[in-house]
Amino acid sequence: MPDLSSRPNDKVVRSHFAANHDDASRDWELVLRESHHRMKNTLTLLGASVRREFTRPGIRDMSVAVDRLERRIVAFGRLYQLLSDNDDMSTISVEAFFESLCGALSEAVLEPAGIRCEASIESGSLPAWQCHRLALMLTELVTNAAKHAFSNKNGAQIRIEMVNREGGWFCTVADNGIGATRPLQGAGSRILEGLARSIQARMCGEAGRGGTRITIMMPASAA
């Protein structure tokens, strides 16, 4: 995991707060469009894994390959269900929701890439809509780390932490990869910026030789 004393890099992320209701509404519309695009990309990943699984040299036990593929398809289904649009105001368990999310991310995205996932989620409760938006942010950060953080997969690890301090939530995604050298860009950056504003959160990041660590801070007033 990244050394907390590693060189800070404020340019890894840009912090944003909600400006007004109209801005938040526009942000959420953008987030929905981009999130659907992201889900299409995960299905592309699934298709690529099918090709790898059934065309790799030396495959002998077809039933084992089919079983692995079936488990991954089920995990993608769980991930999609958790990330589906849900503005329900009911209160749900943070621990149960995000442990399920981390399990689905691990099985659908990380394990096939040779990356180990660790999760530490404190107990608490939040409205379902806030859990959903935090889940979209964490999924984007985890996927980005899986794609760009590792020059090789030996010992690769991503750790997800969620802690509740004085009513606010601090959600961290940390990897032990090569360390980010430039800000998040493109559709992923727009998703994160829009979601952060929609829940009045801000992000901070640091990077160094020990990897990259990005934390989402959602104040108590948003919870």
UniProtKB/TrEMBL annotation:
<dbReference type="Pfam" id="PF07568">
    <property type="entry name" value="HisKA_2"/>
</dbReference>
<keyword id="KW-0808">Transferase</keyword>
<keyword id="KW-0547">Nucleotide-binding</keyword>
<dbReference type="Pfam" id="PF13581">
    <property type="entry name" value="HATPase_c_2"/>
</dbReference>
<dbReference type="InterPro" id="IPR011495">
    <property type="entry name" value="Sig_transdc_His_kin_sub2_dim/P"/>
</dbReference>
<keyword id="KW-0418">Kinase</keyword>
<dbReference type="InterPro" id="IPR036890">
    <property type="entry name" value="HATPase_C_sf"/>
</dbReference>
<feature type="domain" description="Signal transduction histidine kinase subgroup 2 dimerisation and phosphoacceptor">
    <location>
        <begin position="34"/>
        <end position="108"/>
    </location>
</feature>
<keyword id="KW-0597">Phosphoprotein</keyword>
<dbReference type="InterPro" id="IPR003594">
    <property type="entry name" value="HATPase_dom"/>
</dbReference>
<feature type="domain" description="Histidine kinase/HSP90-like ATPase">
    <location>
        <begin position="122"/>
        <end position="206"/>
    </location>
</feature>
<protein>
    <recommendedName>
        <fullName>histidine kinase</fullName>
        <ecNumber>2.7.13.3</ecNumber>
    </recommendedName>
</protein>
<keyword id="KW-0067">ATP-binding</keyword>
<dbReference type="GO" id="GO:0005524">
    <property type="term" value="F:ATP binding"/>
</dbReference>
<dbReference type="GO" id="GO:0004673">
    <property type="term" value="F:protein histidine kinase activity"/>
</dbReference>
